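Lab meeting, item 3. Inverse folding demo.
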């Protein structure tokens, strides 16, 4: 009898272990620095995450805008409708409308350096570029290769059919955005990214398009109450933000970054 009871206890303990493992695999965070693969690949993933979180610190020579990748890829690319990068890795190679050629992930990362960061991409075979790609590959680890982005993951939505009320947008900006991004749109260095002006993304960036900014703002801003704005209000505010000046993109800077020599080539 006693033996049976102890066997039952073992079975219960095992069942509990299996159940906990099953549950935790569903709720496992997308990025946990404690749970990375050990060794150099894990280090590369960690570096990629850290670069995207604090880009000017790691790549001061590649960034002109006063912001990090995570300014627009909320939660360092882990948040649905917040510039999520989950599953992206398996969607390359892909056709690129802007450059009219097939591109790889590094080329797409390079575009955000050129336009969103108003800067210069690191070399394709550099430690930094490979680290960013490693991190995006890691975020994509549970998504089958080539799977399209789920509909509820992106932030680009159809715009309202009426034209935006820019003046109303300005009033809402003062109420709902200026506390963090400041009345002059310059943000606060290190805390709140700029929305226009010399330190912002340039006019070639995705975020400079009204559909993209409206969707981003609709789902992610104000940062202390995301989702609280109607689509119309997000549209009016974005139209107002985009009436302000920002750096232009000089096409002469479109030069392919040189490969970085490595001892194994
Ligand atoms: C100013 C905002 C902003 C910043 C800063 C920014 N991005 Fe982006 N990024 C976007 C937007 C908007 C898109 C979607 C663009 C589109 O669909 O036209 C995007 C798309 C991407 C994509 C492709 C995603 C997809 O689903 O196809 C990658 C990869 C990417 N960004 C990486 C980066 C990296 C790496 C950095 C930092 C070096 C960065 N981004 C900085 C706004 C930004
Ligand atoms: C509580 C502070 C806060 C408020 C209020 C706020 N933001 Fe943001 N905003 C942030 C932070 C922080 C980020 C960086 C992304 C993140 O961490 O969520 C950001 C990112 C952004 C970005 C993308 C990065 C960039 O600089 O272009 C845009 C666009 C934006 N906010 C627009 C708005 C608009 C429009 C409003 C008003 C509706 C607003 N924000 C209100 C804090 C705030």
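The presenter then showed the designed sequence:
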């Amino acid at each position: 009898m006693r033996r049976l009871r102890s066997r039952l206890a073992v079975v219960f303990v095992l069942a509990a272990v299996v159940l906990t493992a099953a549950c935790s695999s569903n709720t496992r965070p997308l990025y946990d620095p404690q749970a990375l693969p050990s060794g150099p690949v894990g280090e590369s993933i960690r570096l990629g995450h850290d670069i995207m979180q604090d880009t000017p610190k790691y790549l001061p020579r590649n960034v002109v805008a006063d912001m990090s990748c995570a300014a627009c890829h909320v939660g360092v690319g882990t948040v649905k409708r917040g510039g999520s990068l989950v599953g992206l890795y398996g969607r390359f190679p892909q056709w690129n409308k802007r450059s009219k050629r097939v591109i790889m992930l590094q080329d797409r990362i390079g575009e955000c350096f050129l336009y969103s960061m108003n800067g210069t991409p690191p070399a394709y075979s550099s430690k930094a570029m490979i680290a960013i790609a490693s991190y995006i590959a890691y975020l994509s680890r549970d998504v089958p290769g080539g799977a399209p982005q789920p509909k509820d993951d992106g932030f680009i939505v159809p715009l309202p059919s009426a034209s935006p009320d820019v003046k109303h947008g300005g009033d809402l900006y003062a109420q709902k955005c200026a506390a963090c991004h400041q009345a002059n749109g310059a943000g606060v260095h290190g805390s709140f990214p700029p929305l226009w002006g010399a330190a912002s993304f340039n006019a070639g960036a995705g975020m400079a398009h009204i559909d993209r900014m409206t969707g981003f703002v609709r789902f992610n801003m104000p940062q202390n109450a995301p989702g609280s704005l109607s689509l119309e209000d997000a549209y009016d505010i974005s139209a107002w933000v985009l009436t302000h000046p920002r750096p232009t993109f000089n096409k002469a800077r479109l030069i392919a970054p040189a490969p970085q020599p490595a001892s194994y080539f």
